[in-house]
Amino acid sequence: MDSHHKINKYLLSDPEVLSLIARRQYPARFVSVSLILASLFISFVLHGQGWLQYLSNVLLLIGFILFVLNRAHFRFRQRIIRPQPGQFYSPVTGKLISIETQNRLIHIQKSRFDHVEIRCPADGSQWQEGSLIVPFQQDSIRIWFQAKKLIGIEAAEMKAGEVIALMIGSGSCVISMPQNMEIDVQIAEKVYAGESEILDSGLTDDNNPKEVE
Fold it and tell me: What pTM does this model have?
């Protein structure tokens, strides 16, 4: 397998998105690094003993824990397997917690340690009144997101697999689908943004989604 084929196999994330995530990490990272530096200052500059050494150890432990948690809260994949045209993928990484067959609803729960990116589930998706719309024949798939920290990316390209928003911390995603689409996942299944196929049907016969009227 040559290098060109390997590159085409993967979809790489926009460097601007990586920069945005890094900027969001700075405040919490500053606190953790400051605690670690304070601990080192007490130990090696002040030659802390007794209660000072105890304080140094506590600061070091707290700083290290905060540093690890900060990294865990901002987990992000820089590349994914390139999505196939005409398919519908999970927009978030998380666990599928329920399927309401009668109401045609799929509920996905994202933990605070799951990947933060929200990826475009299909070509032709559009934001509309706070939800994501994916055209499907004469109907459409609608997706709602709920989280304390949702960060939209205005310049995001609305193509399958592209990062279009960030969900920091825990959150959820609800997918409403048309009656004539088959569900391709099961309850308690782990799904991955931009990689796990949710529905067992192509969006259109020619794999080109129609515009929302």
Answer: 0.81
